[in-house]
Design a protein that fits this description.
Strand content: 25-35%
Number of strands: 31
Helix content: 25-40%
CATH architecture of the largest domain: 2-Layer Sandwich
CATH topology of the largest domain: BirA Bifunctional Protein, domain 2
Structural class: alpha+beta
Distance between the termini: 23 Å
Number of helices: 14
CATH superfamily of the largest domain: Bira Bifunctional Protein, Domain 2
């Protein structure tokens, strides 16, 4: 491609509102331009990178046995009513009506459509398993689109859906996708972790993993072991029960006046008690029933773990009026001692280790001292109900927990029968019995992957593309196109390198050398070849963008040199 014809307007300054490197560099290097908030056009360089990412995805998906299809972005709302998600999905679901006032949605995902597509086709165990995928534009009405294409309202996604007759077959499909995803992100040049995760709005009670690219700009926190392969999203990172019951204190439980001391910090300061001896009490309403959860004062309860542990349909914090009606006091002073019989008490494992604790007395401005969980509290169940902290033991027994930020680029789910039962997708097994299809769901954010590559591969001068996804392999520069020897050598190399299978961006513009070098660093192709002052000797300068290493190479040896370099 001759750069004089390339539609790639570059910017010298960082655009206003671009807060992270990927957004800044995609704008500055001419990969994208904003059309509306959270909606972008991809220019030639950006589209080329997308094409390479999609090519890698297709190769690995096809190798796994998945088959590519294409489903409509516009989906009848009736399908979402069947699955029960039309009202549950929330305001992010984009809706529209046609001229006949029939309601549709712009698909943020395709569980409903794919299930309706196969329910009349995959009606026998003989046709199973099947894995179908597509690469398509998705839509979500983000409240606050930001970070460029990392959180946008229109984005490109690869989604796949497997249909299986039993749990063993589903596990095989899941493992195949897990391996395919690992290969995809490895080939894209990403440093990533596959972490245990929560299914969220997609649903399903089976296994699920997120593929997280390590990055300081990531919106998710990964909890990982410093001595093993364990990794999980912070919201579901589990903790082992390593606590033993503490000794019963000599002192009897007593009450103490604590005026206006509501928070853990206020109580700790007022009573000169360490946070790990405080008992934090929070009332939840779980499927319309009150449940009091308690943990140590230096820990935070995790509502995702709470919902999953109780297999709850709905879990929410109790409102102030509900707390007053049950405990006779205001929030900040409730505790697990002497509570109504209809309120269950669930305690985090770490509560076992409290020997002489402090908790709310269910009386305004009052706390209890010398509380022992076993002696003074009727605990219905112990469990893992809190967020992990750095330094906690890893659940697999290997090392301790550390934190890192991550960008989610892929997610694999075992959906089970959530959608097949709701939309009537059944098959006949070997005995002629009707059974719901077992489903898996597997998504990759294609445009997010592009941004994640940039977050891990850039410097202060610009992009540093891995060759696997780079828009071009080589950047060929002629520093002075008016110099006949430079122009001739450049033209000769441009033709020869393309004949050898290299994708070349040829900077033949009538620009100053400094401009060409700046643009070359900004665009960040893997190798830059410069025809300059030694062109009359047939010598060019070859620079590797990633390392900055430069070497003078004779044109006759250039192809062999590049072959060795890329190999």
């Amino acid at each position: 491609m001759r750069q004089q014809f390339l539609f790639s307007p570059t910017l010298r300054d960082v655009p206003q509102g671009a807060d992270i490197p990927s957004h800044q560099l995609m704008l500055r290097a001419g990969l994208i331009r904003q059309t509306a908030s959270g909606i972008y056009s991809y220019l030639p360089l950006g589209k080329r990178v997308l094409n390479h990412v999609e090519k890698i995805i297709r190769e690995e998906m096809n190798k796994s046995g998945a088959q590519e299809i294409l489903m409509p972005a516009v989906q009848p709302s009736e399908l979402w009513e069947e699955s029960g998600r039309l009202d549950d999905y929330g305001p992010e679901l984009m809706r529209l009506n046609d001229r006949n006032d029939r309601e549709f949605v712009l698909g943020p995902t395709h569980e409903e459509v794919i299930t309706s597509l196969v329910r009349d086709e995959l009606n026998s165990y003989k046709k199973l398993p099947v894995n179908l995928y597509q690469i398509q534009t998705k839509y979500r009405d983000e409240r606050r689109p930001r970070f460029g294409v990392l959180r946008s309202r229109e984005f490109i996604m690869k989604d796949a859906y497997s249909f299986n007759p039993d749990t063993e077959s589903l596990a095989q499909s899941y493992d195949a996708m897990y391996e395919a995803y690992s290969n995809i992100f490895r080939r894209c040049g990403l440093d990533f972790r596959a972490v245990k995760a929560d299914a969220g709005a997609i649903g399903g009670k089976g296994g699920t993993h997120e593929f997280m690219v390590l990055s300081d700009v990531g919106e998710d926190t990964i909890a990982y072991s410093d001595a093993s392969d364990y990794a999980a999203n912070l919201e579901i990172a589990d903790l082992p029960d390593t606590f033993s019951e503490s000794a019963v204190p000599d002192e009897e439980i007593t009450s103490v006046h604590t005026p206006a001391a509501r928070s853990m910090d206020e109580v700790s300061t007022y009573l000169s008690v360490m946070h790990d001896q405080l008992i934090k009490s929070i009332l939840f309403i779980v499927d319309d029933e009150p449940v009091l959860f308690i943990c140590r004062g230096d820990h935070e309860l995790n509502d995702v773990k709470i919902g999953n542990a109780l297999d709850a349909g709905t879990t929410r914090l109790a409102e102030e009026e509900e707390i007053r009606n049950l405990f006779g006091t205001e929030p900040g002073f409730i505790g697990p001692v002497g509570i109504p019989e209809n309120v269950k008490v669930m305690a985090d494992y770490a509560v076992k280790g409290i020997s002489s604790g402090v908790c709310g007395a269910n009386e305004t401005d009052t706390h209890l001292l010398h509380v022992h969980p076993k002696r003074d509290v009727h605990i219905d169940q112990y469990g893992d109900f809190r967020f992990v902290k750095e330094g906690d033991p890893a659940p697999d027994g290997g090392g301790t927990i550390q934190f890192a930020k991550g960008i989610e680029v892929g997610h694999v789910f075992k959906l089970g029968t959530k959608y097949s039962e709701a939309l009537g997708a059944y098959y006949l097994d070997e005995n002629g019995s009707s059974r719901p299809l077992l489903m898996g769901c597997y998504g990759i954010g294609v445009s997010r992957t592009l941004a994640a590559v940039i977050e891990q591969h850039h410097d202060e001068d610009g992009l540093i593309w891995p060759r696997s996804v780079a828009p071009f392999d080589l950047h060929l520069l002629v520093l002075n196109s008016k110099q006949e020897d430079q122009a001739e050598l450049g033209e000769s190399l441009y033709d020869n390198l393309r004949q050898q299978g290299y994708d070349v961006l040829f900077d033949d513009r009538n620009e100053r050398a400094g401009v060409k070098f700046k643009d070359a660093d900004l665009v960040g192709l893997p190798v830059r070849i410069t025809c300059g002052k030694k062109a009359d000797e047939g010598i060019v300068e070859v620079k590797t963008r990633e390392t900055g290493e430069m070497e003078e190479v004779h044109a006759d040896r250039l192809v062999d040199y590049l072959n060795a370099l890329f190999r």
